Request: fold
Amino acid sequence: MNEVTSTPDGVSESAVRAAHDVRVVYSRLRRRMRETYDPGDLTPSQTSVLSRLDKDGEASVTDLAAAERVRHQSVAATVGVLVERGLVDRRPDPEDGRRQLVFVTDSGHVFLEDRRRAGEGWLTRALEDGCTEEERRLLIEAAALLERVVRS
Reply:
């Protein structure tokens, strides 16, 4: 019989352990994947804003600041650097001429695709060489579980 033990605050010890293990492995995986490509001198916050725009579509600096949970001024500075690099650009908001919308340029899309391809290429090879078919299926199931947790 498997007895579930809890911490003093009523959380199962397995939840505490899982949270710790996922956080640690996620951090290591991100770091390892970043080593597979040239970051092009982008900071993590610049990369995050660029990726968010690529995923979610154009947005105002105000919307980006809310989504990134940082100050408007920080995102404005980040966007400024990305514009200088040619990775994003701005255009007037057709619904509110006082606002500008930020969007990913063709160069920005190419930059992101190159990064993704390098990271996924390394991970694909590592999973092929270091895991069995059964282990890869288990990772696919675990990824689906993690996605469910993220959406909760």
Notes: The chain has a mean pLDDT of 92. Strands lie at 88-93, 96-104. DSSP finds six helices and two strands in the chain.
